Amino acid sequence: MAAWFQEVVGDPCQLPPERLKGRQLALLHAMENGGPETIRELIESWGLVWKVGQHGGLTVDVPDDTG
Fold first, then answer.
1. Could you read off the pLDDT of 22-60 as tens digits, one per residue?
2. What are the contacts of 55-64 at 24+ separation with CB within 8 A?
3. What pLDDT is recorded for position 61?
4. Distances in Å between the alpha carbon of 18 and those of 15, 21, 22, 33?
5. DSSP 1-67
6. Which of 8, 47, 50, 62 has the most neighbouring CB atoms within 10 Å?
7. What is the C-alpha to C-alpha distance for residues 23 and 28, in angstroms, rounded to an integer?
8. pTM here?
């Protein structure tokens, strides 16, 4: 199973697939311009699920394709 960040920006050791291109820069702009809420909105706009665990840790889930 891939780490959540690979679903967001791809494998850092390889060029990102076409569907992920531009996400690293978009995340940087979101961090600089709006902080955590803007990052959450951006991640959710990609169809991913932003979750904060009971101890404060952040995870990003990939929804099942079974819908």
1. 988 999 999 999 988 898 899 889 888 887 777 766 677
2. 59/4, 60/4, 60/5, 60/7, 60/8, 61/4, 62/4, 62/7
3. 73
4. 9, 5, 9, 25
5. ---HHHHHT--TTSPPPGGGTTHHHHHHHHHHHT-HHHHHHHHHHTT-EEEE-TTS-EEEEPPPTT-
6. 8
7. 9
8. 0.69
Q: Both tokens of residue 38? A: 């803007």
Question: In the block, which residue shows the tokens 């099942």?
Answer: 64
Query: Which amino acid is present at 54?
Result: Q
Determine the length of the chain. 67
Residue 2's pLDDT is: 55
